[in-house]
Amino acid sequence: MRNDIRQIQEDNKETLDQINLDAQYEIDEINKKNMANQTQVQDMSLKSKAELQLTKNKHQDLESDIEKLKRDKQEKGLQVTRQTEILRDLQKEIRDQAAEISAKDKLIGDREKKIYQLKKKTQELEKFKFVLDYKIKELKRDIAPREMEITRLKKETHEMDKNLKHYNKINANLGYIVDDLRTRQEHMQDLIRKNRSKIRANDIFIKGFTNAVYRTVQFIDDFDLLKRSVNENLYPYVKDQEIKNVEIDPDIKKEYEN
To answer: pTM for this one?
Structure first.
């Protein structure tokens, strides 16, 4: 019995070692796959956040430029209004002076001189007005491309927002897929472990049966020992099975009778 026990232990040692190696390999593979999936999801999330922040910063800069242009336009409009009022006042003064010249012929020389001076101021103001008109036109020309650029950038921002929503949706779907795959992986691993346990049990059963047959065959020449060995080693493998009604080979029957 001690020899048999020692023999069984030696027979099962290789199987136990193989089981331990398989279990450690499965644990390492599962850890590697989980680390790779987590790293990929984190990279996609960080990239989406960075693109969103850049888009927001660009939009804020464009809004600041728009406000600045609006303030400049208002200031130029106020300057034009003040110059127009000054010009109107000067024109009124010219008319008054002309009426006074017609009424006072004695002061024609002085009035003509003053009129000349006023005309000179008027010319300067008209030049200034011309310059202001030119500046206003330039500002309008500058504002039009800026407005087009702003419209284009708003459109791009809208497209980026749509892309961001799309990527967020894809990211969420990928999360669901990862969870589903992880669940399937765990289910498959359970099945693999169960099947391997079955395979190992079958291998142990087959190996034990083979060893039992081998030990029984040793007593083939001694009927009593053979019978005892069959009852001890082989009968436990078939005692719970029903006897099959099969046709016995004549040679086997003849050998049995002999």
So the answer is: 0.31
